[in-house]
Design goal:
Blueprint (H helix, E strand, L loop, with lengths): L2 E5 L3 H17 L3 E6 L5 H7 L2 E4 L9 H18 L3 E5 L1 H12 L4 E6 L11 H13 L5 E4 L2 H9 L8 E3 L21 E6 L8 H15 L3 E6 L12 H10 L3 E2 L6 H6 L3 E4 L9 H8 L4 E4 L14 E4 L4 H13 L2 H18 L2 H15 L2
């Protein structure tokens, strides 16, 4: 039986974003091993039928000693497990697990889900990240990108040979779990932003826009936030900032949820004013699948989810005024008009972003690599 390892920087990610990939690999007769830092989702991964191993990864940190430790941890695990194939997700895994894979002759398939700040900044950390991509990615068997712009950037910076690169439509969306769920018409237009609470995701612009629109529309509008707060990231929103916005009555913070579909079902529109280099944001795909119109930025990865004026609106990155303008358009639509836009979202996701397309691509890449 061939052994396929699947790695990411949190067990939460593997369980929430790659559960069906793990199940499909198991169904196809592979021995599946998951490697990620231990959290409350690690046991859930084991319950799917995969073996689970813990590894230390400082996901937002820049300490070279810790990162060297991660590389050696991968090497030790791979010498023990002896995998045939390794699927890597999230940035440090794409780099360090690929380097470790070479020491045991295993082939790596990497997923570049957005390049974050690596190509926006010119600081030492960004330059080091580009260098690490350059020494590690040519050693991969296949590199999947979630949008063409990231793929073009890799080519421009000569980070990997083009012949090993391919494209998948984000991480896809499970259309059987996320089903059409029209909101109720009760006179309040509800907006939701789901993401890690990072300023790079446009949280600040969302809050500023909410403040302005709450002044103009009062209880006719509501702005909700859902996602991890105070994370290990220089762009993180602090607990104090969030509490001050909640106390001011601008936003409702919903914490985190394993059943995001319940929260998406209650709202009229999904918003993500991100200026981060996204892959294709999972939250937007899930909202599309549930029949919600989308407001997001005309930005890498985000724009893939919206046909402007059809199933939502694109606003300018880093512009509160542009975001306010698009939110106001949505507020002034009738409830029925918003539902019709949402139906177009569902059609778009069925045609372009079905998770089955993504999983099929991974399975084919694994089969090809193991021949």
């Amino acid at each position: 039986m061939k052994t396929v390892v699947i790695t990411a920087n949190t067990s939460w990610y593997l369980y929430n974003f790659r559960r069906n990939t793990i199940l499909t690999l198991l169904e196809n007769g592979y021995h599946v091993v998951a490697i990620s830092p231990k959290d409350k989702y690690s046991q859930k991964i084991a319950e799917l039928g995969a073996d689970y191993y813990h590894i230390e990864i400082d996901q937002g940190g820049t300490n070279p000693i810790k990162d060297i430790g991660t590389v050696f941890s991968f090497v030790r695990l791979y010498r023990r497990i002896r995998p045939n194939m390794i699927l890597n997700f999230t940035p440090k895994n794409n780099i360090y697990s690929t380097l470790a894979a070479r020491t045991v002759g295993a082939k790596a398939i990497n997923n570049i889900a957005g390049l974050g700040m690596v190509f926006i900044n010119e600081n030492l950390t960004a330059k080091l990240a580009r260098f690490l991509y350059k020494i590690s990615q040519p050693k991969a068997h296949t590199i999947f990108f979630q949008n063409d712009e990231d793929k073009a950037l890799f080519a421009k910076h000569n980070l990997a040979p083009l012949e090993i690169t391919d494209r998948v439509p984000g991480s896809g969306v499970d259309l059987s779990r996320f089903t059409l769920s029209p909101s109720k018409d009760d006179g309040t237009v509800r907006f939701l932003l789901i993401a890690r609470m990072l300023y790079d995701k446009g949280i600040g612009h969302y809050v500023e826009a909410a403040r302005e629109l709450k002044t103009n529309y009062g209880d006719q509008v509501e702005f909700r936030l859902l996602g991890f707060l105070d994370v290990n990231n220089p762009s993180a929103v602090s607990k104090e900032d969030m509490q001050s916005w909640v106390d001011e009555g601008i936003v409702n913070y919903l914490g985190t949820s394993d059943s995001v579909e319940k929260e998406i079902a209650k709202v009229d529109c999904m918003v993500l004013p991100s200026f981060y280099r996204e892959g294709v944001p999972k939250s937007l795909l899930e909202a599309c699948a549930m029949g919600k119109p989308i407001i997001t930025t005309d930005n890498v990865g985000c724009r893939e989810t919206v046909d402007d004026g059809c199933n939502g609106y694109l606003c300018e990155p880093r512009s509160t005024s542009s975001l306010v303008e698009k939110l106001e358009l949505m507020i002034n639509h009738t409830h029925q008009e918003r539902l019709l836009m949402g139906e177009k979202s569902r059609t778009k996701v069925e045609n372009e972003f079905d998770e089955k397309i993504v999983i099929r691509k991974y399975l084919q890449a694994v089969e090809t690599a193991l021949k």
